[in-house]
Specification:
Helix content: 10-25%
Strand content: 25-35%
Shape: globular
Mean pLDDT: 91
Structural class: alpha+beta
Strand order of the largest sheet: 20-21-23-22-24-25-26-27
Distance between the termini: 47 Å
Radius of gyration: 23 Å
Largest sheet: 8 strands, mixed
Number of helices: 10
Amino acid sequence: MLFRSLVIVDDAGQVRPLTAPGPGYHDRAPSWSPDGRRIAFISDRPAAPEGGATRLWVVAADGSTPAITLTAPAQVGAVAWAPDGGSVAWLGLPAGTPPGTAACLWVTTADGTQTRWIPLPGVPAPGAAVRSDDPRGMGDATLRWTPDGRIWLRWADGGTSRIGWVHADGGPVTTVVGGERAALAFDLSADGRLLAHVTATDDDPGPLAVCAADGTGERTIADRNGWLAEVRLGVTRRITTAGPDGLPLEGWVVYPPDGALAPGGDAAGVPAVLSVHGGPHYPIGRRFSFETQRLAARGYAVVNGNARGSTGYGDRHATLIHRDWGGRDLGDTLTILDAALTPVPGARTVDPERVAITGVSYGGYLSMWAIASTDRFAATITENGIADLASAFGSGEDDGGFWVAELGATPWSDPAAYVGRSPLFAADRIRTPLLLIHAEEDHNCPIAQSEELFSALTRLGRPVRFLRARGLGHLMNFTGPGAFRRARGEAIDAWLDAWLAPGG
């Protein structure tokens, strides 16, 4: 059983426990009060029956008094002390709120007696950030409360993520870092006059920049991306379309750079890879992707987008996937692909007969379900995917709360909700060549998920291969060693080259 507790390390390097460890819970995101006497933190202690809900806690920094909770069970995701130490701002939602619902901004007095809500007009997803294939912007969100009474935060807005502030007394939200880019991290000077941030674009992973608190005078102060001058990048085009029920959708296609040819050439148009994001609520968008650019350099057009369920477009968009995994979200994904395949003057033509689908985690699940639902794809690659929703229930670190929240039932109360949308139970309909990549130490989506589907497809005589990532976990693409990343890339390239070449 995993757990995390808080410790303090003094100037002499002595370690003193601050909170007591307990089975299955995690103390995280510590934040010092301005006077240094208290520490606010987030924890799911004690074990909560509300489906992994967390609370805001405060503990004396000298350990003289035990930790006390300031809030009822909630999905707490960020903490910031008021400059006078009398209150704590936090992002969160009441326990039981449908997955994908945007967090709210709250302020609670330091004794926990009063809590008030601060509206955030025009902010679709407070605390969220556009995701990509590196870990920046993941984990707990950031809040900062400056001496002038402003509470700063980051939020997702469509395919972008922004930084701005709202006054602690409420009012309009002011965007400071915006535009067609993705803000990943930020902090402010002690006096609140300078803002430092890391913000990515389609063609830059993001330098460290600083600007005044009103956004003026932005300048780069550290940039480790000089290698970009030595490579050719693909060209990104934004896609706008609508789902089968008229829901507005946004996506992107990255075309290969001039001169990049896929194996077998592109006389009929370039082959394409449709990439499905995970979560299922994590948004993607105007952010550099190493894997996308790598595949584009090899001659593939890469398509991705935000189907229903993605945050950044409002609560209705983000919660429409509730109890409908593999339903209308698959329809949205195919609609985004169709829009990308539509010829556009001045852009390279994409060959609709040579398209692969791929995804990680939930993206792996939807890729499996897609090839059980249609034969339009020439190849599939899934990473840490989910094949059997019923066996995923309660496995790994999850006690089943995630699945009840997403699917609206337990396997015994509604078996059809699990079996009816599980790729394993539709394995006989899968004929598309499938490469399964899975981490052996994945505690979110255990490796048995891919093992089950591999065994089924092998028994059926279907084209399938399995790459096991030994000693790695769910975030293997972020944390895996160079040897694994190279082996993974070579396996993906070989699979795509074999099945997406003309006549493959």
